[in-house]
Amino acid sequence: MKVDLQGRIAVVTGAAGGIGRAIALLLSENGATVAVNDVSDRGVETCREIEKRGGVAKFFPGDVGNAESVNAMAAAVEQDLGPVDILINNAGINTGKDGRHPVHEFGDAAWRRILSIDLDGVFFCSRVFSGGMVKRGRGVIVNIGSVLGLVPIRLQCAYSAAKAGMLNFTRSHALEVGGYGVRVNGVAPGSILTEGTKDLFYKDKQLSESLLSHVPLARPGDTKDIANAVLFLVSDEASYVTGHVLVVDGGWTAGFAREW
Ligand SMILES: NC(=O)c1ccc[n+]([C@@H]2O[C@H](COP(=O)([O-])OP(=O)(O)OC[C@H]3O[C@@H](n4cnc5c(N)ncnc54)[C@H](O)[C@@H]3O)[C@@H](O)[C@H]2O)c1
Question: Residue 94 is inside which H or E element, if any?
């Protein structure tokens, strides 16, 4: 799909790697100038790749879970690149394999850390950028949730709660700003192949087969599958779509894929 994002300024949080990097590259390929945000300095590498392909990008480090850091990052973006038209709230974390515990054993620090990045982060970034969008009467926000925000999973209570919260936040925000020409949507990915999920699931044949037996399309998603969904939602072709959560999960949450 090719859309026209010429002249638009897009911020992508957590764009140093994985899904965020793929979104940043695709928005750039379609004409947007991209503000690449991340806590990791590897965000610079995403910018280099965009520039290598003829696009325009700049790295704005910052921690989305910290309001002061977000406000400083937003001020720097607007000063350097101008008013922001597109915000992609992509940065997110979960526990690793050894951090998966039942609620009665789940630690405060892990709970706080996940909620602060996956839920507070979406609020902080949406707040700071949507004010200008409302004033200018245009703007698009896409929040990257998870199917686990729609259908929870065992032993990942903080992630399931944060992602459910941010998807309802998405709809609530859409209600508030629709009258000002600003659209807010979500994308709920299923299991997507990244460096992180390769280590967690896909290096182990048995684990990989077990996970994919729940996915009708029988493969992990590609980061481009999520980037394509985001591209549609930010485009003018989606100008009547707001308050929607687009599920991109190979059919995982369509129903029970196996008989028993
Ligand atoms: N990969 C999947 O299977 C999958 C499935 C469902 C949802 N998601 C969601 O998609 C988004 C991207 O996931 P991914 O798999 O690409 O993860 P990833 O770990 O590969 O990338 C996440 C990026 O966010 C950055 N980040 C972490 N904390 C940050 C902070 N406080 N401020 C700014 N940046 C921060 C990391 O440095 C990293 O570059 C997340 O919101 C995740 O929950 C991923």
Answer: none
- Does residue 198 lie in a domain region? yes
pTM as predicted: 0.99
Domain span at 19: 9-249
Asked, for residue 257, whether it belongs to a domain, the answer is no
Number of domains in the chain: 1
Please, what is the angle between helix 108-115 and helix 157-177, to 10°?
A: 30
Give the pLDDT score at 9. Answer: 98
Atom of ligand 1 nearest to the CA of 65: 31
> Any idea what the CATH number is for the domain that residue 74 is in?
3.40.50.720
CA 247–ligand 1 middle distance (angstroms):
17
CA of 120 to the centre of ligand 1 (A): 14
Percent of the chain with pLDDT strictly greater than 90: 98
Q: What distance in Å separates the CA atoms of residue 13 and residue 23, rounded to the nearest whole number?
A: 10
Average pLDDT value for residue range 237-248: 98
4, part of any domain: no
Catalytically active residues are: 159
- For the segment 13-44, what is each residue's pLDDT rounded down to a tens digit? 999 999 999 999 999 999 999 999 999 999 99
Domain membership of residue 56 (yes or no) is yes
CA torsion sign for 18, 105, 163, 166 is: negative
